[in-house]
Amino acid sequence: MTPSRTRTKPKPLSKSELAGLNAWFRAANYVSVGQIYLLDNALLERDLTAEDIKPRLLGHWGTTPGLNLIYTHLNRLIRQRDVDAIFLAGPGHGGPAAVANAYLEGTYSEVYPSIGDDGDGLKALFRQFSFPGGIPSHVAPETPGSIHEGGELGYVLSHAYGAAMDNPDLVVAAVVGDGEFETGPLATSWHANKFVDPTVDGVVLPILHLNGYKIANPTVPARIPRPELISLLEGYGHEVITVEGDDPADVHQQMAAAMDQAHDLIRAIQDEARAGKRSLRRKQPERPRWPMILLVTPKGWTGPDKVDGVQVEGTWRAHQVPLSETRTNDKHRAQLQTWLESYDPGSLFDDEGRLVESVRALAPVGTRRMSANPHANGGLLRKPLTIKDFREYAVPVKAPGGSVNEATKVFGAMVADIVRDNPESFRLFGPDETESNRLGAVYDATTKVFAGEILPVDEHLAHSGRVMEMLSEHTCQGWLEGYLLTGRHGLFSCYEAFIHIVDSMFNQHAKWLNTTRELDWRPPVSSLNYLLTSHVWRQDHNGFSHQDPGFIDHVVNKKAEVVRVYLPPDTNTLLSTMAHCLASKHYVNVVVAGKQPQFDWLDAEQAADHCARGVGIWDWAGNDEGDPEVVIASAGDIPTLEALAATAMLREHLPELRIRFINVVDLMRLQDEREHPHGLSDRDFDTLFTTDKPVIFAYHGYPWLIHRLTYRRTNHDNLHVRGYKEEGTTTTPFDMVMMNDIDRYHLVIDVIDRVPGLGSRAAQLRQNMVDARRRAKEWTREHGDDIPEVKDWKWAEEVDGDPAATSGTSADFA
User: Fold this and answer.
1) Is the N or the C terminus of the chain less surrounded, counting Cβ atoms within 10 Å?
2) What is the mean pLDDT of the chain?
3) Under a CB-based contact definition with an 8 Å cutoff, are residues 125 and 144 in contact?
């Protein structure tokens, strides 16, 4: 869609406007260089000495002047047009620029009063950068105005588009580094503009900064012939506005014109779309061609041209610290002083070290400052999710195992109501798997978003909606993170095996949450919630490539304060778990639940109690009467099924054997209370699992994780865990569990082998179990299906005791 209105050519900057912009640009560059190098003498009141220089020079200069230029001109746009904007720095380690501009705007001193807006404050600002006890060199959580670190490359556009969703007046300026341009996640996220609805969403203004080099090599986009690169960007759906040069006065003129032109086009697209919505126009709108800016400036611009006779500016040598020996090399130190003096700090700061009023006045005011914009501190804007009591969706359970449901399908109705009740603050994200993961009920309340052409054959597809699907886990994760960090709520549904694609993105978000827990000026944001389904035990049809439960192992490596893992065994426990997770704040919640038909074990009240405890005894399954000879435990829906089936056989054939059955829904309850807020005390753990009895544990994932979580427990030596051990293929569901020795027959064998004195008494039963495994395998190979005694198994009434509420230790489910 190209708006029909005529766009006027932007007027050139006046002499005073140009001088003002250049003054801010010089100030930002000066403060950036000072952060990289200086311990003292922040305003060059005397010649630099070795003691003025940091002993370890850490930082990245090369990208910084380009970021400062962009920030300078965004501020002009904000001031002149009252634009609501935030700034995302994609280039790696752009921290000096973001911190410098937040300081010049006054926000830094407001957030951190110890870093004042005078000479002492400037010295403290310089000292803390990349210094022990200070701040990192990237745009970290500690940086006001940041929702995107830039420490790991590839996510700036997906974060930006997530921030723009449901923020109709917000402009998200997303600077893409030309090194970042080469990453896979960034490549897919160019297509996020096909998911923007100009009637309800804000806009992302991508700014691709070509400075030519990364750490030690040229960048691909910088070496592509310019027409080819512009054609590529136009092919992504953008109108490209180019700014190029190395003369500051000329570049300022170009950049001001580019910003005006881009904003004119943005407003024209939005005005036309919103006018069309108001007129109830039925014609399918053409997809907008949103503007972007291609900025081409030298790497390390305005820095040292040459060092020791070698070209630095405009080369890869400017990437990090151009003058690396300033503490020990007099010539380097003198060159650093010349570099700093080139920005004329005496005209920028007064005698007390404060920014002069003429430059200070160039900053936007209040929350229009990008460093103080509440959209970049989403906890300020977050409102609690409106969510009904999960019991309204619960399935009736008259007796354990007496009914069958698809847990995620039932949960889909709950998601539909969450969408209805939170029409502007909740979205569902996933890579083309909403239907596959049985969440299709959400389409009773909303549609999938797609801004392109929609054909009659398409289902649930519209230009507006709350379901975001793109076959890139990276982009979905980035969208959700951007949405959460700007104060909203969401859910990411994905196949369990392929959530590994975002392992590193999860790392970064978990680290962000952990850091911001210590920043009292950043209120908590909504939790990042994963629903992992189509899991390892029911990927029998897709085969080995789709079988991997290891994301849980990856998650529990992170700080205990921010990670939670839940394995609900049936429909009602899934509903209870998700209600809790979706309402929670500042965690990463991982919930693993199958989508296939499965038995219902607990009614709504039992499920609520069980989830509140996180772990508990299922009295109806066992017969230990408070004095077990063996504990059978489970975590996960299929392991619970197999553990219960094994328990039923043992109770039938060895009725005198006293069995305690324990189910774990909150995996972190297994950990020591000193290691995780949800951990059980040693007393409570020993009460449940005993101090000296065999424990046979059927676990959803890799078995060694359970040992890792419980290695300090008194009874750890008696703990025997069955789980996935990297055996799989395209086969039947029961053959999958047999391949990994977590099947009911093998669990019975484990009990016989580990309960003292049971071996000889149960020799015949053990032999029968071995034979049963062989028969089941032969049947599968002959008939292509599971053996009837497994496929048709149910919890027998003669085994089923009083289906009372489960019991266990109490714990806060928070």
Assistant:
1) C
2) 93
3) no
